[in-house]
Amino acid sequence: MSGRGKANKSGARALGAGRGVSYSTSPLLASKTPPWRSRFLVALVGLAFLGLLARAVYVQVLNTDFFQKQGEARYAHTLELPASRGRINDRSGQTLAASVAVPSIWAIPKEVDADADKRQALAKALGLSNKELEAKLNPDTRFVWLKRLADDDTAAKVKALGLKGVFQDREYRRKYPEGEAAAHVVGFTNVEDRGQEGIELAFQKELQGRDGSRSVVRDRLGRVVEDIGDIVPAANGQDIDLSVDSKVQFFAYQRIRDAVAENKARAGSVVVLDAQSGEVLALANFPSYDPGNRQNLSGEQLRNRALTDVFEPGSTMKPFIAGLAMETGRATPDTPVDTGNGKYAFQGAVISDTHAHGVIPVRDVIKFSSNIGATKLAMQMQPREMHEMFTAIGLGQRPQISFPGAVSGKLRPWKTWRPIEQATMSYGYGLSASLFQLARAYTVFARDGEIIPVSMLRQPHDQPVAGIRVFSPKVTQELRLMLQAAAGPGGTAPEAQVPGYSVGGKSGTAYKQEGRGYAAHKYRSWFVGITPISKPRIVVAVMVDEPTAGAHYGGQVAGPVFSQVAAQTLRLLGVQPDLDVKSQIFANKGAVATEESF
């Protein structure tokens, strides 16, 4: 056979052998796999399942609250249901402060999809610059207030733009119907609706109420899809009923505002008390402010001067010195006091009266406002007696009243008094008090010798409140007659007279302290009085700070304000006149005795 034939046969056999190959006899496939490799693969699969199981336990058992909150954060939201702040009312139910629902505008910056023109329109509607708006719409911020407590016009303009990612909610804003007249009484709240001044601050806890909540599901556009869980209703704040009469308050504010303007003064205050119940009927100051619009406010406007400003009370202390002298049996209304020629050398100092009165009875010491007469009465007493009396009428103590900012004034311990200091205290120098303290002190004369507690809240009954006795009724009746003479013809404040009503009171004028001494031409003028004398119903205290129009005596500057405020208040309270107007004697300006408080 040829070589070519042998080759064909060999190829055929090889092909036949290929079709019948046994793989188990292959040297490569016949090699055994090491046992550790299969175990290792099974272990890897088992560890993977254990890892998944551990993760499931961690997510669904151990830390389920966290992951549930994270999930809910993507769709569930809790909406705050704000409580309406309680109202502040006057004694007759007239609203002095109330909450009104107004729109607040907010946004989710990363969802705000608006072109440059619409963003500019949004900025204009909000009253912002383009730069301010872009700063608020920082995409890294999840939530931003664009304008809180906006007006309805602003809200309507924003809504008309139809911008995606910009939303509106309702919040409460305080309204103050009496404006400037009652600002220092009611105070105001901040943007978070928390009290900052006045009654709003003093009764923050009662007024604020408790917010509620509502859990909802929102879609990606911020729209509420459904409620989930229970709704917790809001508990509205408690209403506060004040003792203040809004009509008396408004009139008192007008009169002190006009007096400050007429006398070219720096400021002024008025306090009106009900002498039977101790209720504060009015507390007004000028300058004032609008509590609903507090832009560019100054400290001068915010100061509640009737409670925060203290001054040396001057001649208003003389009736108390006369009362103590009579109460202790050292004097009677007719006891003569030698005031000499109007100059009295004492302890190296000279105490002066503006006129030489000679020998006068105690009643005329008050009528003519003699510094020398007050000094001679005071120096018969022990310092401790005077200090106890001053303490009894509330000097040197913070008034116990539900109101922020009230101060105590200054009354040094009696053991530190030098004789000259005891003398000057008798006519109101060397100690200090607020106008509010003086008004309360004069309830002693209105209540037959008792000083009564005062309140800014409406009292439940019209019955007279119990007081603390300072003088006996007999002594107090004598003092009322002296105060009536001081406010009558020949006294220091005839301009305080009220047509149809008997009036008693004491004026005061003092140099203002400046540095360690006194300013040469800066005065504080005031008048504190009661009316009617026959059966006192109200106490009115008036103070005018730095009058510069010419007149500066308390009787001339503060007396007319007392007259106007007292007349209006008595009419509003329905108090019947106790004098015949036709026969009433009106003092003329030529019969005025100048005050001697310097």
UniProtKB/TrEMBL annotation:
Gene3D superfamilies: 1.10.150.770, 3.30.450.330, DD-peptidase/beta-lactamase superfamily (3.40.710.10), Penicillin-binding protein 2a (Domain 2) (3.90.1310.10)
Pfam family, one: PBP_dimer
Keyword Cell inner membrane among UniProt keywords: yes
Sequence ranges assigned to domain Penicillin-binding protein transpeptidase in this UniProt record: 268-565
A Gene Ontology cellular-component term: plasma membrane
Keyword Cell membrane: yes
UniProt record similarity statement: Belongs to the transpeptidase family. FtsI subfamily.
Transmembrane segments: 40-58
Enzyme Commission identifier(s): 3.4.16.4
Active site: 315
Keywords from the named record: Carboxypeptidase, Cell cycle, Cell division, Cell inner membrane, Cell membrane, Cell shape, Cell wall biogenesis/degradation, Hydrolase, Membrane, Peptidoglycan synthesis, Protease, Septation, Transmembrane, Transmembrane helix
Function comment: Catalyzes cross-linking of the peptidoglycan cell wall at the division septum.
UniProt membrane topology term: Single-pass membrane protein
Main location: membrane
Compartment annotation: Cell inner membrane; Membrane
GO MF annotation: an example: penicillin binding
Catalytic reaction list: Preferential cleavage: (Ac)2-L-Lys-D-Ala-|-D-Ala. Also transpeptidation of peptidyl-alanyl moieties that are N-acyl substituents of D-alanine
InterPro entries: Beta-lactam/transpept, Beta-lactam/transpept-like, FtsI_transpept, PBP_dimer, PBP_dimer_sf, PCN-bd_Tpept
Lineage: Bacteria, Pseudomonadati, Pseudomonadota, Betaproteobacteria, Burkholderiales
GO biological processes: cell wall organization; division septum assembly; FtsZ-dependent cytokinesis; peptidoglycan biosynthetic process; proteolysis; regulation of cell shape
Protein's pathway: Cell wall biogenesis; peptidoglycan biosynthesis
Top-level division of the source organism's lineage: Bacteria
Domain Penicillin-binding protein dimerisation: 81-227
PANTHER family (alphabetical): PEPTIDOGLYCAN D,D-TRANSPEPTIDASE, PEPTIDOGLYCAN D,D-TRANSPEPTIDASE FTSI
Protein name: Peptidoglycan D,D-transpeptidase FtsI
